[in-house]
Amino acid sequence: MRIGEIATLVGVTSRAVRHYHHIGLLPEPARQANGYRAYTVRDAVLLARIRRLTEIGLSLDEVRDVLADDAGRELGEVLAELDADLARQEREIRERRQVLAVLLEAPLASDGPLPPALAALLDHAPATTSPAAAKDREHLALLDAAGDEAGAELLAALRPLAENPGVLVLYERLDALEGAGADDPRIAPLAAELAAAVPDEVLAVMPVGEPSATGFGRLLLDDYPPAQRAVVRRVMEELAERVRRRTA
After folding, report:
1. How far apart are the C-alpha atoms of 96 and 90, rounded to whole Å?
2. From residue 235, how far is each of 4, 144, 205, 211, 241 by CA, in Å?
3. Is 31 helix (H, G, I), strand (E, B) or coil?
4. Which positions ≥6 away from 55 have C-beta within 8 Å?
5. Structural contact between residues 206 and 154, judged by C-beta atoms closer than 8 angstroms
6. What is the model's pTM?
7. CA-CA distance, 152 to 143, in Å (whole number)?
8. End-to-end C-alpha distance for the chain, whole angstroms
9. How many whole angstroms separate alpha carbon 21 and alpha carbon 234?
10. I need a surface site. Which of 93, 115, 164, 178 has the fewest CB within 10 A?
């Protein structure tokens, strides 16, 4: 194979191949009598390995270390690993296309298609124009985007809460705090009622470490103005205490 052929086969550019030669990451192959580089299957495997390692975030120096560890391995072993990796990518693509198919079948909202699990949850929620409720939907979409089983279980567990019409009143009270200060006397009673409205079933499937004021919880808090942030923080603290009591 020539440089253009191996680059096309692996899915990189000829310029990238030359760069890997330049920095010593990919050894220069033997040249034919006409001066062209002659690449072998081993070269293609090595180049594919470099591409995969860089795609998952390794620096070129880190890739060099990994390749050094691979140096003593048999070609068949490396090929089997690459084949397994391609099979994993195929599974991921199929799963993403299945999700996309569901999204394309559903009515498109003004802000784009909702994740299937979240759409199923909102199907059971009463209609509302509450800004706080809209913000909750955005946060749940972000959680669902993590794509793990815990997020899907949490959305399913939230159904009784979504169906509770009393929650709309709590959202309206939270909306009323948008321009208030962090010392507003309405904060404590509203936080207590919001926390009390969360079923124990929701706490049982919360991701490890949540709710907390770090990680996802910190991002959530930063999205609120002062008084609303104080309410949400108190709710998180109360739920964390309930989780602690359940697991003690």
Report:
1. 10
2. 59, 21, 17, 9, 10
3. strand
4. none
5. yes
6. 0.51
7. 9
8. 64
9. 57
10. 93
